[in-house]
Amino acid sequence: MINNVYYKNIYFEKGKCKYMIKLSHIKKVYDTPSGSLQALKDISLTVEDGDIYGIIGLSGAGKSTLVRCINMLERPTEGTVEIDGQDLTKMNEAQLRSVRKNIGMIFQQFNLLSSATVYENVAFPLKLSGMAKKDIEKKVMPLLKLVGLEQKARQYPSQLSGGQKQRVGIARALASDPSILLCDEATSALDPQTTQSILRLIKKINEELGITVVIITHEMQVIKDICTKVAVIDHGVIAEKGSVIEVFMNPQQAITHEFISVLLSDELPSAFRQQTVSAEPVEDGYLLLRLTFLGESADEPVIMQLIKNAPNVDVSILFGDLDQIQTVPYGRMIIGLKGDAQKVKEAEKWLGEQDVKVGVIGYVKRHDAAVD
Ligand SMILES: Nc1ncnc2c1ncn2[C@@H]1O[C@H](COP(=O)(O)OP(=O)(O)OP(=O)(O)O)[C@@H](O)[C@H]1O
């Protein structure tokens, strides 16, 4: 396999460290003409070996500053950055240059040399490090093969599509055998289909080469598609972090809800929209519940069982959708329960005992004049 020959890890022996990247109490203050600006305020997070760690936030939240602190392109004002147990904040520039070989980075705008061919772009960091020409060739061609560009070696960036340019960026980032790949909005300039193909490539690199990946993005779709863990950053602080599945199933903060809701088109039928929602039963109204199923429970016939268990309650499915978080099935549904208030309560209780997450929207009266 290609990584046995060309991806020998020079800095890190697996199994020796419990973590790959550990940021502790990072603060970053920029001096600006209008005064000092605190871009990061006490950020702590740990990225473990093999993670694909997503950092999501709105524009200006501090994502780029944070990712640039990981490889010390930005020096934090306070706090420590440990990679494989080494504290980068204590290093001088020469030491940092050496450690940075262990950290590849790709960018939104690809940052390729326009006057160099694809081959020369990937060879560039190797040339700089003084590698012999024949060794460079041995390294560059397998990398181009890995990213699917071996036929484009002699072309220039201007002759490539956006996705192909990012593939060159990835091959170049991998040239120094990194253990870590930092991706700063790497798919933001790409269309959705190309984004998918680049994300698949990043996942392959993570899985086959064992490279730990940190992805900075403002798109929850990217997090959902490939990340194992996520941190939501807001105004320079981490609002929420955890496994992607946990955060999707149980978002705690309003900003996380907002990011997730962009992906979820779980709108109520028009008959229920703009109706007053009450916490207490309303006469002739429905109790609306939001159900979330994960993993195997997504396949289970919970609704059929509910109908059997609560024969006197009308069950209406108002919205349903089956998706995946990476390979885990993830189902969402909005249902309306109508009937005797006590029976409806019992049906809700029964659902709460099943392998499904139940969120109560409230009691709503159907607006019969509406057309669905
Ligand atoms: N070199 C700098 N000098 C001064 N202020 C900066 C500098 N870099 C970033 N900032 C400020 O720090 C804050 C965080 O910026 P940063 O680029 O890290 O955010 P971001 O989440 O990556 O945003 P975007 O998605 O728009 O790139 C912003 O208010 C920005 O204006």
From TrEMBL:
Keywords: Amino-acid transport, ATP-binding, Cell membrane, Membrane, Nucleotide-binding, Translocase, Transport
Gene3D superfamilies assigned to the protein according to its UniProt record, in alphabetical order: 3.30.70.260, P-loop containing nucleotide triphosphate hydrolases
Domain ABC transporter: 21-260
PROSITE patterns the record matches: ABC_TRANSPORTER_1, ABC_TRANSPORTER_2
GO-annotated molecular function: ATP binding
Pfam families named among the record's database cross-references: ABC_tran, NIL
PANTHER family: AMINO ACID IMPORT ATP-BINDING PROTEIN, METHIONINE IMPORT ATP-BINDING PROTEIN METN
Name of the molecule in the record: D-methionine transport system ATP-binding protein
Organism: Pectinatus haikarae
Record lineage: Bacteria, Bacillati, Bacillota, Negativicutes, Selenomonadales
